[in-house]
Amino acid sequence: MTTLELILNLPDELAREAREAGLLTPEAIESMLRDRLRAQAGGELRSLWTRLPAEEISEGQLREIVEEVKTIRAERRKALCYTSDALTLELARVLQYSRLARRIAQLGFSKEALAERYAQLVEIVPAPSIVGAVPTDPDDDAVIACAVAAKATHIVSGDKDLLILGSFRDINILSPADAMQVIESPRAPRRADR
Questions:
Q1: Euclidean distance between CA atoms 156 and 185, whole angstroms
Q2: 32-42 pLDDT, tens digit each
Q3: Is 84 within 8 Å of 124 (Cβ atoms)?
C-alpha cells in the first residue's frame, strides 16, 4: 500500500459540497480513481477498436476479443470472501458441534478438510471490534466488524439477526439466494481491487 498526501485547491463551494457528500475521504477518492482508471481503459479500447478496419480483424481474433471481454466481465462479478480472526475462531467452535458432523461427512468432507478449504477461499483482515451493530445478537457484531474492515459491499448470511438489518452503513446484507442474483447480474457491483 502506497501512502500519498494530496493537496487540492478547490473553489470554496465545490469543496464544501464534496466534503458534505463524503467525497473527500480516502475511500471515496480511491473509488473515484479506480472508476476513472476503468473508464480510461475502456475509452482506450473503444478508441483502438474504432481505428481498426473491420476487414483487418480475422474471425479468430474476433473470437479471442469476445472471450477476453467475457473473462473481464466474469472477473468483475467475482465475489471476494473475507474473514477475521474472531470469525475464524467462531467457525472452529461451530465445526465442533456433533450435529454438524454427519452433514459434513455427507458432503464428503472432514472438519479439518472443510476448515482448510475455507482458509483457501478467504482473506483474513484485521477487524477492530464494533459494539452494538447488531442489537439482537451481539455475537454478530464480529461479522459487521469484518465487513467494515474489508470495505465489503455486501454481507452474505442466513442469520436472521443480520438479515433483519438490511444494511449497515453502505454494506448490503443479503441472503445467499439474493447474493447469487447480485453476482450473476450483468451489472454486478465490483469490489475495489486490493
A1: 16
A2: 887 787 777 66
A3: yes
Give the model confidence (pLDDT) of 123-171 as tens digits. 899 999 999 999 999 999 999 999 999 999 899 999 999 999 999 999 9
Q: CB-based contacts of 27: which residues, under 8 Å, 6+ apart?
A: 151
Q: Identify residue 172 by its one-letter amino acid code.
A: N
Per the listing, cell 475521504 goes with 25
191 pLDDT tier (thresholds 50, 70, 90)? very low
CA of residue 2 relative to chain centroid, distance? 21
